[in-house]
Amino acid sequence: MSIFDSDHSDDEFELPEQDLDEELKYCKSILESGYVYDSIERIDELVQNCIDYDRLEDALYLLEKLIEIFPYNSEYWLKKGIVLNGLFKFSEALLAYEQSLSLNPNDIETLIDKAAAEENLGMLNQAQETLERVLELDPENDDALFTIGLLFQRKSKLREAILYFKKVADRDPNYAEVYYELGFCYENTAQLDKALDAYDKFLDLDPYNANGWYNRGIVLVKLNKTEQGINSYDLAISIRDNFASAWYNKGNALADLGRLNEAIDCFKKAYEIDKNDETAVYNIANIYEELNDLSSAVKYYTESIKINDEYYDAYLSRGFCYDSMGKYQLALRDFNKAISLSKDSAEAWFAKADLEYSIGQVRESIYSYREAARLEPDNYELWFNLAETYFELGEWLEALKAFDECIRIKPEDAASYYNKAKANFVLSRTKEAIECLKTAFMYDPSIRTEFEKEYPEIKSSKLFRRLLGEI
After folding, report:
1. What CA–CA distance (Å, rounded) separates 201 from 420?
2. What values do phi and psi take at 378, rounded to 5?
3. pLDDT-flagged residues of the chain (< 50)
4. What is the pLDDT of residue 14?
5. Residues 267, 248 contacting (CB under 8 angstroms)
6. DSSP of 90-138, one letter per residue?
7. Eight-state DSSP code of residue 19
8. How far is Cα 21 from Cα 198, in angstroms, rounded to an integer?
9. Tens digits of per-residue pLDDT, 400-443?
10. Distance in angstroms (rounded) separating the CA atoms of residues 142 and 174
11. d(C-alpha 187, C-alpha 176), whole Å
């Protein structure tokens, strides 16, 4: 229902817009003179024409003058509320509606518009009370039922919203908007088949609604019916070519199907429509990276950073590209920037650590690995890399602690037991080394071959075989 609903019929006089200023001038002069009684109908029609042509300030002026003369006219107070609502002056609109209701307490139209103002002010419980008053006066008022459903939806009480929307749909199967909202509620309560059915019913009633086709596409993709989802996005785009979100979602769906070049075209179209959409540009870069076109990937990651210079993911991803291209200092700069933007990101610390290690900054990599492990303590690969780095630096005790963390995460990890064995041998902890070696051989017999290659002088030792319990 429009906030500018009125009682006038299609047969009433509608002033051409080009004549509106002249009529306003004339009616203002009448209002200023105070002799309005013979011109009331003409002024009322002008008020409606101002509303129809979105000349709301002019409509407000006329209504305030009329209210000065007729302060007990509830209709004028109602229209003032409608105009103020249209001007986004919701608090003033609410006062006007309350004044109208003080003169005509049971007017359903005023109650419904008052609820709209209350909703716009965030007074959701008061809006619901107002609408329940409407239902007391008119239990079959579909607009009131529908709006209560919207209020529950806005409060994230979607199952309650569904109950009200279903009441409306049961009473009026041609109430198109209710199926749209049912689709939204069902989708967000993981009832995807019901959501699809609701959007299909909505589109039966309103087949040229781009948002309907778009939402239907989202549900189909969630149902793993990706091709059908793409078809729905195409229909949304055919209705509204500048529908950036539809182009973007179509790009995601095409990428999921491996149709990467088509996906790039869609993301480029989304970016063409919305030059502030850094995520569309990021996705273009991401696909180029997947296609191993690293120069193009860097170009688009850089473009996304120009749009949003605090785009953590873009810095991190560009850093990976620079690393792969051998541009290590640029990569390190990007990883550091990513860390500065999200200090709690284990991934950025891990990337920095691996890069530092690979360019010979081994000591620095220890700190980065430890930061990553602090943030993601159950990441086996992190602890293993840290343990190996300690091992390389000859920090055997720290290496042992890190390998113990690996075993905590993966109790049957033969590689960690084997490396613990080597560290214990270095520390002359023969008993502990042998126990670790036994466990490593038990979990992965192939490690014995590796051990014999690394320690050929030990493999034939009778003492060693006796310690292993083999003789």
Report:
1. 65
2. -105, 20
3. 1-12, 471
4. 62
5. yes
6. HHHHHHHHHHHHHHSTT-HHHHHHHHHHHHHTT-HHHHHHHHHHHHHH-
7. G
8. 46
9. 999 999 999 999 999 999 999 999 989 999 889 989 999 999 99
10. 12
11. 17
Residues 6+ apart with CB under 8 A from 419: 387, 388, 391, 399, 403
Average pLDDT, the chain: 92
Q: Which residues contact 183 (CB under 8 A, 6 or more apart)?
A: 195, 196, 198, 199, 202, 212, 215, 216, 219
Kindly list the structural domains of the chain, giving each domain's residue range(s) and its CATH number in brackets, ordered by start: 1-139 (1.25.40.10), 412-471 (no CATH)
Could you read off the pLDDT of 56-75 as tens digits, one per residue?
A: 999 999 999 999 989 999 99
Instruction: Quote the tokens at residue 438.
Output: 């036994």
Q: pTM of the full predicted structure?
A: 0.78
CB 118 within 8 A of CB 130: yes
- The dihedral over CA atoms of 244, 247, 250, 255, expressed in degrees to the nearest 10, equals -100
Backbone angles phi, psi at 155, to 5 degrees: -85, 10
Take residue 170 and report the two structure tokens written for it: 């049961």
What confidence tens digit (pLDDT) does each residue in 328-342 have? 999 999 999 999 999
CA-based torsion, 130, 133, 135, 137: positive or negative: negative
First to last CA, the chain: 91
